[in-house]
């Protein structure tokens, strides 16, 4: 069983429960050759902290001594490994050397009999150069074998491999077909040739297509991906598990892994690594070690590089900054930069999982930053939910943030003349009323804009002004003060409410006599009182609203379901009304437009409001997970 503990878009820190223990993801499973022990399984567990490894059941089965020991002692005793053991089936051997002499049934039953915790189906490795017809035929066989494996697994978990060559539609089809099968983890297979040929852009397409089809409640394993330079990108795309034999293979060839690539010791000029394997060596002393000792030292270094990078990836997930790490890492190689840029094609899918806001500021690292889904969301909500406060626009340059403080007097001047203040920013046009909403105020850009960003901003402004049909546009300095009366706080309240909840919900939230309470120190909005009811509170960190129970009741009564709703089973209602969190197992339905960290209404089967909180997951995740929090409840609502 799999549970998401923390997330950053598609990336997630999870708990994968197996009979041998719980594996925290993202995790790498070192590949252990049962015949060659460069670094022993016990060392992998105790020295490096690897909670799981992968070994090859086909090699064990075909080696008399190993087979007999595995059958009599069990796999954990054979390898002397107390953690989780996953076994491969012989698919890669078939890919490398031709057909293997074993059936799918035989290898599944063998994996089960030796005590493998996670067995793997004997799938068909799909080559990148295969035709679509070849690939379709092989997928049919893989799916038949996966269904057979699921029926034979017993208490062993099964890995159902997603194949499909470089055809995204076939990858998604293969993944979707496994949703109803009793499998536990989904490796994405057939990708080693793509990585060996630095075809990372195609790798992105393969992973995204697979993620679209897979059930969210199962961990995704990217077969053969273990180099530190690709881990951050793969985790960003939703991969939870990885494996690597390269740490040992490279070591036998005197090659050392680093975050920016792999280098032969013969080509290196110095060794500036301070990992436990290298700290007592210079490049010269490393080269002079006996072969076996040098191989093990380099293998240990490679493992430490992997461990270090995974720790960094987890930290960035916890800090909500994984996009920035990926943008940095992908500049290590032009092929990775192509992959980063290709994410623009997948922004619509990535936006589904993008949290409404994050802790801390968003850092711009280059033109590729504009491909982040947060840009797309802002564009869409500005287009669909913003209502101009005037029919004329006053244009401002990108000044200090928040703009309403930097341009305080100028905003008042042009607004009094009947103009809507609009700032030209790296996000495109920013109405003054939305300048504190995440990520507008919570972002850092260089003072000198690159040509791509400047061009994008100008084009967005032209489209915005044209589509909104402003009767007139003027530069801020060309506008004299006027006498038009306006309520800047109310205009901001309505603009943010529409942006966050939608136009219809904003209209029922803020109506009649409205009192807006502001901070004595900053003058910023703190609470919104509508017709005597406290409906909204504004958060200082992201400029968005927290929904109060009275406000939620207005939306429940005035906006038809399923808008902003998470429906729970009757069994959960008594607990939720007391303020307990909503767990996935009790979610019956959910608005598909809800994004992580959005304010939601928790309702019962009759659409009666029972709680208010923030969504932790999206609809597909809430309905598929059996464990984990779907909604963090802030206020329970007792039934009258």
Tell me about this structure:
This protein has 26 helices and 29 strands. The two termini are 38 Å apart. The radius of gyration is 28 Å and the shape is globular. α6 crosses α7 and α12 runs antiparallel to α14. The protein has 3 domains: 2-250, TIM Barrel, CATH 3.20.20.105; 362-486, Rossmann fold, CATH 3.40.50; 507-636, Archaeosine Trna-guanine Transglycosylase, Chain: A, domain 4, CATH 2.30.130. With 640 residues, it is of the alpha/beta class. Strands 6-5-4-11-10-9 form a 6-stranded parallel β-sheet. 39% of the residues lie in helices and 21% in strands.
Short characterization:
By secondary structure, the protein is α/β, with parallel strands linked by helices.
Keywords:
Rossmann fold; 640 residues; 6-stranded parallel sheet; 3 domains; Archaeosine Trna-guanine Transglycosylase, Chain: A, domain 4; alpha/beta; 6-stranded mixed sheet; TIM Barrel
